[in-house]
Amino acid sequence: MAQPLNILLVDDNGLRASIIEEGLREAGHANVSVVTTVAGLVKRIERLDPDVIVVDLENPNRDQLEHFFQVSRAVKRPMAMFVDRSDTAEIEAAIEAGVSAYVVDGLRKERIKPILEMAISRFNAVSRLARELAEAKSELAERKTIDRAKGILMKVKKIDEDAAYKLLRRAAMNENRRIGDVAASLVSAYNLLGDA
Known about the structure:
The protein is an alpha/beta fold. It is 63% helix and 13% strand. It contains seven helices and five strands; from the N terminus they run βαβαβαβαβααα. A five-stranded parallel beta sheet has the order 2-1-3-4-5, sandwiched between helices. The model has no long low-confidence stretch (mean pLDDT 83).
């Protein structure tokens, strides 16, 4: 990794936290902040702005897990969660919540670096896929709006589809706007006027 990571370690057991912090530092991560209480965690995460969050839960109960799943959804950062025991439902909930790495059987020093790298890589991949999905949905919605605008022009002006598209494109060029924006304006105006 090119630049040093800013890591936030969350562990309510101070002794375990110091061992994990030592392991992180031995793995070459000097920028480690340790939090031993979860009260106000989201605000602290926003203030510290970590690149990755490491959560170590010895024997988590459902409330603790749900709290961290909510944190994961809220902060949109790579999160590696280490637990000593788990069940299938908890693993599925962690994945749904966006936890990047959910590791059962605790945390050992020698596993820290590859797990952090995997968590960051997975988080980046999922984020990229989410962006691509949002872009695809936006493009599809814009395409539908353009098709609707072409239909309106074809109906009102009694022209074919090609001529309607050329008319939209010319209006977009003349107004220095995107064709999707011109189409949206036309559809909006048409809806306001009704079928008049």
